[in-house]
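Hi C.,

You asked whether I'd gotten around to modeling the 356-residue construct. I have! Everything is below, sequence then structure, no commentary in between.
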Amino acid sequence: MSANSFGTLFRVTTWGESHGPALGAVVDGVPPRLALDEAFIQGFLDKRKPGTSRFVTQRRESDTVEILSGVFEGQTTGTSLSLMIRNEDQRSKDYSEIAAKFRPGHADYTYWAKYGIRDYRGGGRSSARETAARVAAGAVARRVLGDGVTIRGAVVQIGPHKIDRAKWDWSACGENPFWCPDRDMAAKWEEFLDATRKAGSSAGAVIEVVADGVPAGWGAPIYGKLDSDLAAAMMGINAVKGVEIGDGFAAAELSGEANADEMRAGNAGPTFLSNHAGGILGGISTGQPVVVRFAVKPTSSILSPRRTIDIDGNETEIVTKGRHDPCVGIRAVPVGEAMMACVLADHKLRHRAQCG
């Protein structure tokens, strides 16, 4: 299988399956002498791991990371960094009944059509379990970025219920299981997802990731745009079906006057009066916060019978059993943060390589 790597100078290759013995990442391009240990990476993995509330899958995984290479005496060496996370709570028997059936909304059919074989145990490589490796790589990317760049994510919509942006409070994200910056909406989501979960169904979500402290100048014109790389990175996350930068699709409703991010002179460079562009113009960062949103579809594994076909082309029905997220978008927040970190780290190194 090809296309397991992303990035140019900061390059990440992930490996492993949902129900295999382990999964992990190999990270190339990490500068030497950066402070790094397993405890630092673990802090980010703990945000993504399953079983943290009744609103996510109850699969029990510690997601304990092991650094196999690239670190010596608490510092990166400049060589390939290898990270491994062992799978501990696989229940492959949960999937035995669907070995010959294609789950609607999953990658079962497309993997079969392309490769002629598929790992039906949790979806194999197409499982969201693979994103644990990305989160580990994203922790390394944060070391490359340094303390000057802050990356934070939040869920801004679950199902049809959107937050009130006037009530946005970053500190609220750590107070509820949804990474919700609106305390009032978090309470409504709890009721909504409880009902969704009890019905055996699922809901989609929209996640917003913001990077503060990104200097002007990262990115490149035309084929190396910062926003195009960010869009590709977010779209590469499991179950993501839409990405926007800044105002995104809402910008189409604005006039030219309203959409223009006007500038005034400031003591430390230009001051922008708005940020409709999401901190990127012409593919290059402006020095404003970089803002990305992505939409995650409802979890395809649901208890309601769905019509499908089997590998022989026979029409049948399927019920997906097992331990699944009623809203997989909740655990996508640290994954989106990690992908933002990886892309920014790559562009920081690419900018330094060209411009010094």
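If it helps when you're writing up: The CA atoms of residues 262 and 273 lie 5 Å apart.

Thanks,
B.
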